[in-house]
Specification:
Layout: H1 2-14, E1 23-31, E2 40-46, E3 52-59, H2 60-63, E4 67-71, E5 74-82, E6 88-90, E7 93-95, E8 106-114, E9 118-124, E10 126-127, E11 129-136, E12 147-159, E13 164-172, E14 175-178, E15 181-187, E16 195-201, E17 207-216, H3 217-222, E18 237-242, E19 247-252, E20 255-260
Parallel strand pairs: 1-9, 11-18
Antiparallel strand pairs: 1-4, 2-3, 2-5, 5-8, 6-7, 7-12, 8-10, 11-15, 12-13, 12-16, 14-15, 16-17, 18-19, 19-20
């Protein structure tokens, strides 16, 4: 009798239903975009219904040494970001505060069938911002720059769960790094609306917000052959404004476009 009971218990163990056991998810870093591996990545794992199964934070260095998370088996969506600390995140929406630059945000989005005991999720980060380097060609030999600028658009961040641009007002007044040279970061754009506003400086060197004119940056950037707001990872853009010649030059890598301006000073 004891022998029969032992055999029955053994068979039960052999045919145990393991569908209810969790799957061990391996987050595997494939593309780091050259980021410091001490950088922190925040991630969320959801099921097909959008229910959060797990979330957490890890350094990029940890992802390279078999970083794992246990979740229920099923088809999973995994997304995350690096550098989103500078903005407000609500319901997986990355929202840039008014008056601020876009953060140096990198994002990934993956999905996988996690029906086995283990499942590998690739983490390939994409650059979700473009740095605009904007400079004015000097009007005279003095090299003095009489202008300030503002940047605005209709896209204020991104939906981290889909990777899509988030509609809303974005506006910032870039800092003048040195005479006539400005820099700011803008988020991925969804459609037209990226504008550059030109203002005149006060005689005291302040900023009186007296608008001179506005330039359609979207139109200019859209004409650069080697750039698209749909690129997986966005490139940086250099823009030179030559007011005296009524000309703007936009450059991305080896690609350049030159367009005429009509500015009322």
């Amino acid at each position: 009798m004891t022998l029969l009971l032992s055999l029955a218990a053994s068979c039960t163990g052999i045919f145990e239903d393991r569908d209810s056991c969790p799957s061990r998810i391996y987050l595997d870093l494939e593309e780091d975009r050259g980021l410091d591996h001490r950088s922190h990545l925040s991630y969320v794992i959801q099921d097909v219904g959008g229910v959060e199964e797990a979330s957490g934070e890890a350094t990029l260095g940890e992802l390279g040494v078999d970083y794992t998370v246990k979740v229920p088996k099923g088809h999973l969506y995994v997304f995350g970001s690096v550098g989103a600390e500078s903005a407000r995140i609500s319901s997986n929406l990355y929202i840039i505060p008014g008056g601020s630059d876009c953060g140096t945000i990198y994002h990934f989005l993956s999905e996988a069938d996690a029906y086995g005991e283990t499942c590998r999720i690739p983490v390939s980060l994409n650059k979700e911002f473009s740095t605009l380097e904007i400079s004015f060609a000097p009007d005279d030999d003095s090299g003095a720059n009489p202008y300030e600028i503002g940047i605005r658009s209709n896209w204020c961040g991104m939906d981290l769960s889909t990777g899509m641009p988030l509609r809303g007002l974005f506006h910032t007044f870039p800092e003048e790094l040195f005479e006539g040279h400005f820099s700011c970061r803008v988020p991925r754009q969804g459609s037209r609306g990226l504008m550059l506003d030109i203002y005149v400086k006060e005689s005291t060197g302040g900023f009186d917000h007296g608008l001179i004119d506005s330039i359609d940056l979207w139109k200019i950037i859209d004409s650069i052959e080697g750039f698209s707001w749909q690129d997986e990872s966005l490139q940086d853009i250099s823009i030179v404004l030559d007011i005296s010649r009524s000309q703007v030059t936009a450059t991305v890598g080896q690609w350049e476009t030159v367009q005429s301006l009509t500015i009322t000073i």
